[in-house]
Amino acid sequence: MSDARPSVAAFGVFDGLHRGHQSLIGEVVRRAHDGGALASVVTFDPHPALVLSPTSAPRLIGTLEQRIEGLSRLGVERVLVVTFDAAAARESARSFIERVLVGELGVCDVVVGDDVHFGRDREGDVALLVDEGLRHGFRVHPSPTYGDDERFSSSAVRAALAAGEVGVAAEILGRPFVVRAVVERGDQRGRELGFPTANLRPGERQQLPDLGVYAGALRRGDRWYAAAVSLGTRPQFYETGTALLEAHLLDFSGDLYGETLDLAFLARLRGEARFDSVEQLVDQMTRDVTATREIFKDFTPGASVLLG
Amino acid sequence: MTSSSGLLLVDKPGAWTSHDVVARLRRLLNERRIGHAGTLDPMATGLLVVAVGPATRLLRFAQAETKRYRGTVQLGVATDSLDADGEVTQRVAVPALDEHVVNAAAATMLGPQSQVPPMVSALKVGGRRLHELAREGVEVERAAREIVIGEFTLTPGMATDSWDFEVSCSVGTYVRVLLSDLAVTLGTVGHLSALRRTASGRHVVEDAVTIEKLSALDEPRRALRPAAELLESLDSVVLDEAAVVAMRRGQRVRLGTEVAGDELCALDGSGGLVGVLRRRGDTWQPDVVLPEEAS
Fold this sequence. Notes:
The complex is a heterodimer.
Chain A: E1 7-11, H1 19-35, E2 38-45, H2 48-52, H3 64-73, E3 78-83, H4 86-89, H5 93-104, E4 107-113, H6 126-136, E5 139-143, H7 154-162, H8 166-173, E6 177-184, H9 189-192, E7 198-202, E8 212-220, E9 223-233, E10 243-249, E11 260-270, H10 278-297
Parallel strand pairs in A: 1-2, 1-4, 2-3, 4-5
Antiparallel strand pairs in A: 6-7, 6-11, 7-10, 8-9, 8-11, 9-10
Chain B: E1 6-12, H1 18-29, E2 34-36, E3 45-52, E4 66-75, E5 77-79, E6 88-91, H2 99-107, E7 111-115, E8 124-125, E9 128-129, H3 130-135, E10 139-142, E11 145-156, E12 162-170, H4 175-185, E13 190-200, E14 203-204, E15 209-210, H5 211-216, E16 235-238, H6 241-248, E17 263-267, E18 273-280, E19 283-289
Parallel strand pairs in B: 1-15, 3-13, 16-17
Antiparallel strand pairs in B: 1-3, 2-3, 4-12, 4-13, 5-6, 7-11, 8-9, 11-12, 13-14, 17-18, 18-19
């Protein structure tokens, strides 16, 4: 698998691949292309916070496979996944540079956010990288576009999602927020009401939007289908915080059971509600479907290379 | 009062994820702050070290340096995940082997070495497996890491071409990679068909409780062990009363004696755990301070 070319590299968790990440990776790809080098990214899995503060670690915007897929779509040619565990957490910044950046990648250039902190106790910064670069023979390019701007941060995306503001999240991500999930067999309740739904089970640590009803789009193969999406709790089965994610596909019928699909959240329609009668519920769902259809008309997945 | 902070040694059942165990314990103990050290794959059984309550903040110090496993390797069949949960990718004839040959091969794998962690089989990119993507020019790989294999012995297993093994290894070792490498050394392929963690540092699976047993207890919190056991890898220091008070207030303390290392387990005069101190030049900064009643 090894390539003789030296690497232009960036390193980080890159959860969500938001516009700040995209700009940083863009610089890696550009510099690699110009210099005949390999565009490389080092990323960490699981999220370092899971090891450093397991009980208060953030939820994830995307899965590792979404991240790798996104990196490859942005033009990255080599992705090195560093297993982040207690031993990795104890590794010094200099050892990380020597072992991974120099040892495994043979970097000629490193692109970093100018506020980067890495290694044990967050001791590594731009100055330390420059210092090590002189020793090992690589250049460091601090990029001011990433990190400085509060808007472009993974935690801002999580906060926007938690507040149900999927539009704000999309603004930071440069595309609608997409959850990758497996379709599970549900209790068929929706079918009886005339709105068959796919029950989606996201990953264990997935960040989801606030509970409510959303206009969405679901990708199957190369095609996106309009989907009315409901995120609601099932307190009788799960501990608090676990929600049931259901998507009613507008122009699709067929069995999706067992498939892994991408669901884009386009707009929030309303909060969770209880209805006095089944008729009222069906009326509301009919309005949700109409609204979803309208919003889906303006959905242009081709606008972002990360959606395709 | 029953202690609400400490550690639990759980004997994880097969087919459960380590997180499933944590989720069940959260309900059983009615405590949200629960975390585990050293994930066990769903297929594996055995010792899972779990921290409960304020003690979860000590988990990052709890990675025992050495772990012991017992398990079975199935030779002749390769899977994409290197264990029995993956899809079969290859079948290769197994040469005639005896115990001497197999153990001689295992002996060559002892000592410090670097190991490349496996890419998980479930990892797909755009619906395609990673090795397919690799063919199109995107390389996805895991960074190598330094590990140490202490002991590694094998005996013939129950099934044809299966061998039971015992291994002791450093934290971060992927046992399935080790066994897959051994199979290649023996001139065939193989995958891990069973795995049980028997020890993690000083903790042994014989001291662990099963989920069923824990569920049957009237007061499951009684199974909790002292939080200080999570800090066995650190040297400890007994603080005088003034220093205990200072540390609980988050103030730096000075120690009378010279100590090696950068992290210390701090105890009060009666041996109760106060927290963890971290070296800051000549002084020691409180890194984790536990609530008084929890120690």
